[in-house]
Design a protein that fits this description.
heterotrimer, A alpha/beta (352), B mainly alpha (299), C mainly alpha (263), A: 352 residues, alpha/beta, D-Maltodextrin-Binding Protein, domain 2, eleven-stranded mixed β-sheet, 43% helix, 18% strand, B: 299 residues, mainly alpha, MetI-like fold, 12 helices, 72% helix, 0% strand
Chain lengths: 352, 299, 263
């Protein structure tokens, strides 16, 4: 035991001494291991990663004093909050020649006009994921939020549906279904959405953060409100395990949430130089495509398209046509009063 | 200890008491006070707390806002009541399950007792989360338990039920995790009972049932109270079990507090909720102390 | 009458055995499934060591385990020192505020200690959450447990022994070193082991005081359960059970009465 401890101590000392280390605070499973290794070889440095599974979690941890991260990969609304907190370093674009690869449609967003701080990394859609065979068998529609909110459909699916355990995402889906913008902050509309959710809730199996991937794969759950990457992963797993069914995703016709994740430099990061090299490396089409091929994420990188597997590139729930794309919305950050009211609505949803 | 007033003895007393006292004042009492203070502040725009002193025009200083918010809607009282109810149910189930076991151990031959007690403690050798996770596997829809139950229900034409992600799953895990806390104090109490009392009761013609209710049970009340407090309090603040095993309506006060700090970024309101929880705990301990006040000795 | 007593015995035994089964079945399932040759943790497919191999090659998991061991070692050493002092002080001087402040962290719901420390570390100490904050938090909740164990072992001692030592002209320190300390040493060691186990095992308080840079085994297990459950969780659980089991058995060998005294 003593020797083991000693070894551990030495090892800790050893890792602390290494010179060139890039600290990356990223989403779970949001970069390919090969990409990381290639970058490490190219820059002769080490990449140390920490993960989060929710923007709120990342912001809360940063608010709680987490420091030392060179790169974060926040979604739009979190990016906005970080910029307003002056927590980010402006980018030196002269050192990002590959920035030209990004589709202009994903540049100059409301969150960061002129991209002073952020470079698009990848995007995810929050949409419907479903067991194709089951939904066909039950003759249920798969192109509308009605299927997770309306009891007439849900009664065929009782206990087979999960929704995201995220205040913003679930509220956005309900608002969209009611015909309001996802960023609506009118409390009356929120209450309408709340009532819609409470009415549908008895039919749902759970609020779920990410284990729905596994439940879709096993076949316990047939319909989810979830992230496009996760649903993609569930289908891969189901095929690998030869479960005999397909998991597919679709963007509901009412519209959905698009989460554009961007790479940014955190003020506390000790190595902005390495961080910029990393960003430019990830802007290279081949490296960027690797992520999409791995997890089925949306890709804002035009150069990457030629490296992306055709079955992914042609999937309309990952690369939607312009008409569908026009109905996608990115979530904005809420102020403290709105956060508190939303939290109360969420408590009501969870308790009733 | 007659020499406690000599300077050397006073120095010793100080040397022994001061370090733990100072450490706990710093890392237990001070944080508690900070939390009380935080509950009277405004939330920061991006989380944390708004500054106490700042330019006019921005929110700063002290306020009763969070308390007003707490009482502005019945929902927060409701979540406390619900948490109390879950804690009460868990405590009662633990009591019912623990009593026979504790009684059996107490009445077993001495040499066997230690082993039997150890067997109750051993599950503690596994991490708390693992014990919750175990129920995730056991209650899963593909697990034997669910299949059997639903097969049975199917025979009677009842629709299949989902065990996982339900209030049932939460309660089972609550009981599972806290059961030993009930067994141990109960056993410690029952072990001390004088068997002569039971023999006397029997000689007076009391039936087994009467002997239990008239002799054993009243004598074991102190054990029941200590066990209940040990189960009730942790359950009241629990967030991990509803978090992992809960379904669509299993939010407890612990989850709400966690959300304020790690989700909504509303520390003042989180602090207010924590203070309310502290008050609830103190109230419960006080009630338990009053109820157990007649106890002959501490278990 | 004997038949009656026999029947009652049977009822009691059945209830007790059911409770034991309730306590052990879930853990058995976790262990069994750690050898299951399927990613999904749903049905039994076949035997494999695969998940243990995965575990051994999971660099992050090993780092986490290292963190947990380091935190548990440091925090239990400090907590043992402070807790032993507190235990002695509580026994000898009966200072009420001290008793209160030592026992309160043990009695409070963990979440309260967790969030108040979070606030304190950030608002007052301006400390970046990480190894240090976790260690301080663990010491805080462990002191009480060590103190209880030490006090219990002191309560069992014969005071006349120390009187005798004093009468022979021994100074308080000599009395302590040569008679009190050796006698309570088993209690101190058991208390320390308990603090070590509590630290290795703690989830709630660590959850609030960990920040992002440093993870511990329970935190990692939590995120694995929440995000992607593979039988690797079962494998790490099984190993962790073995470790804590060893410590408990050790503690019960050294001080047989301590475990009972704890609750």
């Amino acid at each position: 035991m003593k020797r083991l401890l000693l070894a551990m101590l030495l090892w800790h000392a050893g890792t602390a001494l290494a010179d060139d280390v890039l600290h990356l605070y990223n989403w779970n499973n949001y970069i390919s291991e090969e990409t990381v290794q290639r970058f490490e070889k190219q820059c002769a440095c080490r990449v140390v990663q920490d993960y989060y599974s929710d923007n709120e979690e990342m912001l809360a941890k940063l608010a709680a004093g987490a420091t030392g991260y060179d790169i974060l990969v926040p979604t739009g609304n979190a990016l906005e909050a970080l910029i307003r907190q002056k927590a980010l370093r402006p980018l030196d674009k002269a050192r990002l020649p590959n920035l030209k690869n990004i589709n202009p449609a994903y540049l100059d967003t409301a969150f960061d006009p002129g991209n002073r701080y952020s470079v698009p990394y990848a995007y995810t859609l929050t949409l419907l994921g479903y067991n194709v065979e089951k939904m066909r068998e039950l003759k249920l529609p798969t192109d509308t939020w009605a299927v997770i909110f309306e009891p007439e459909y849900l009664k065929k699916l009782k206990g087979r549906v999960t929704v995201l355990d995220s205040q913003r995402e679930l509220l956005a889906a309900a608002l969209k279904y009611l015909g309001y913008p996802a960023n609506d902050t009118d409390e009356a509309h929120w209450k309408q959405a709340r009532d819609l959710i409470i009415r549908a809730k008895p039919y749902w199996a759970a609020f779920n953060a990410s284990s729905y991937i596994k439940e879709l794969t096993i076949g316990d759950i047939w319909l989810v409100h979830g992230y496009s990457n996760d649903i993609f992963q569930a289908n891969l797993d189901a095929q690998n395990a030869r479960r005999g069914f397909t998991i597919a995703s679709s963007i509901p016709r009412e519209g959905a949430v698009l989460a554009l994740d961007s790479m940014v430099l955190h003020q506390s990061g000790p190595r902005p130089d390495l961080a910029l090299r990393f960003i430019d490396f990830m802007l290279d089409g081949k490296n960027s495509a690797e992520l999409t091929n791995l997890i089925g994420s949306g890709n804002p990188n035009l150069d990457a398209m030629r490296y992306i597997k055709p079955e992914i590139a042609q999937n309309p729930a990952i690369f939607p046509d312009p008409q569908r794309r026009s109905r996608l919305e990115m979530l904005r950050d809420l102020d403290r009063t709105q956060r508190r009211i939303l939290s109360r609505i969420w408590t009501e949803i969870k308790l009733r | 200890m007659s020499d406690q007033r000599t300077p050397a003895a006073r120095l010793t007393k100080w040397l022994v008491s001061a370090p733990p006292l100072i450490f706990l004042l710093l890392f237990f009492a001070a944080p508690g006070l900070i939390m009380v203070l935080a509950s009277f502040r405004y939330p920061g725009e991006f989380g944390g707390l708004a500054p106490l002193v700042a330019d006019p025009g921005t929110l700063h200083g002290l306020t009763l806002e969070t308390y007003r918010f707490f009482f502005s809607d019945f929902i927060y009282t409701e979540i406390f009541l619900k948490s109390l109810l879950v804690a009460l149910a868990t405590t009662l189930i633990c009591l019912v399950m623990a009593y026979p076991l504790a009684l059996l151990i107490a009445r077993s031959p001495k040499r066997r007792r230690d082993l039997m007690v150890l067997l109750v403690i051993l599950p503690f050798a596994s991490n708390f989360l693992i014990r919750i996770y175990a129920w995730m596997i056991l209650l899963g829809p593909q697990a034997a338990l669910s299949l059997m139950l639903n097969g049975l229900l199917g025979l009677f034409g009842v629709a299949p039920v989902h065990l996982l992600f339900s209030p049932f799953a939460v309660l089972v895990a609550m009981v599972y995790v806290h059961l030993p806390f009930m067994v141990l104090p109960l056993y410690t109490n029952l072990e001390r009972h004088d068997p002569a009392l039971l023999d006397a009761a029997q000689d007076l013609g009391a039936s087994a049932w009467q002997r239990f209710w008239r002799v054993t049970f009243p004598l074991s009340l102190p054990g029941i109270f200590s066990g209940s407090v040990l189960v009730f309090i942790p359950v009241l603040g629990m967030f991990a079990i509803p978090d992992i095993l809960g379904g669509t309506r299993d939010m407890l006060i612990g989850n709400l507090i966690k959300e304020q700090f790690l989700g909504t970024r509303d520390w003042p309101f989180g602090s207010t909720l924590s203070i309310m929880l502290t008050l609830a705990v103190l109230l419960c301990v006080w009630i338990a102390a009053r109820l157990g006040g007649r106890r002959p000795h501490h278990a | 009458m004997p038949s009656n007593r026999g029947r009652r015995g049977t009822v009691l035994w059945t209830a007790a055995l059911a409770t034991y089964a309730f306590l052990y079945l879930p853990l058995l399932i976790v262990i069994v499934y750690s050898f299951n040759d399927s990613r999904l943790n749903a049905e039994w497919v076949g035997f494999t060591w695969h998940w243990y191999e995965v575990l051994l090659h999971d660099e992050e998991m090993l780092i986490t385990a290292g963190n947990s061991l380091l935190i548990a070692t440091v925090s239990s050493l400090v907590a043992t020192l402070l807790g032993t002092m507190a235990g002695i002080a509580m026994h000898r001087y009966r200072i009420r505020p001290l008793t209160f402040i030592v026992m309160a962290p043990v009695a409070m719901p963990e979440i309260l200690l967790g969030v108040s420390l979070l606030l304190f570390f950030i608002q007052v100490l301006n400390l970046t959450l990480g190894m240090l904050s976790i260690i301080l938090a663990h010491i805080t909740f462990s002191i009480g447990f060590v103190a209880i164990v030490v006090r219990t072992s002191l309560a069992g001692l014969d005071e006349s022994l120390f009187e005798a030592a004093r009468d022979c002209g021994a100074s308080p320190w000599e009395t302590f070193r040569h008679s009190t300390f050796p006698l309570i040493l088993p209690g101190v060691i058991a208390g320390g082991l308990m603090a070590f186990t509590l630290s290795i095992d703690d989830f709630v308080i660590t959850f609030f005081t960990a920040g992002v840079g440093v993870s511990t085994l329970p935190l990692r297990i939590y995120s694995m359960i929440k995000i992607a459950v593979t039988p690797e969780v079962n494998a790490v659980s099984t190993l962790l059970m073995l470790l804590t089991l060893t410590i408990i058995v050790l503690a019960s060998r050294i001080a047989p009465n301590v475990l009972k005294g704890k609750a």
